[in-house]
Amino acid sequence: MLVRTAHPSDRDAIEALLDRRQRTDGHPAVSEHKAIRLLSPEQIGRVVIEDGNGEPGLVGYAVANRHPPAAGLPNGHWAVEIVAEPDHDDEVAIVRLLTDTMADGIRDDAPLTLWVWRRAETAAVSPRRLSRRRILAEMARQLPVGTEWSLPDGIELRTFRPGDGPAWIEANNAAFAGHPENGALDDDNLARRVQQRWFDPQGFLLAWNGDKLVGFCWTKVHDATRGEIYIIGIVPDAQGQGLGRALLLAGLADLHQRRGITEAVLYTDADDNRAVSMYRSLGFETIRMLEELVLRA
Question: How do residues 11-39 score in pLDDT, each as one tens digit?
Answer without folding.
Answer: 999 999 999 999 999 989 999 999 999 99
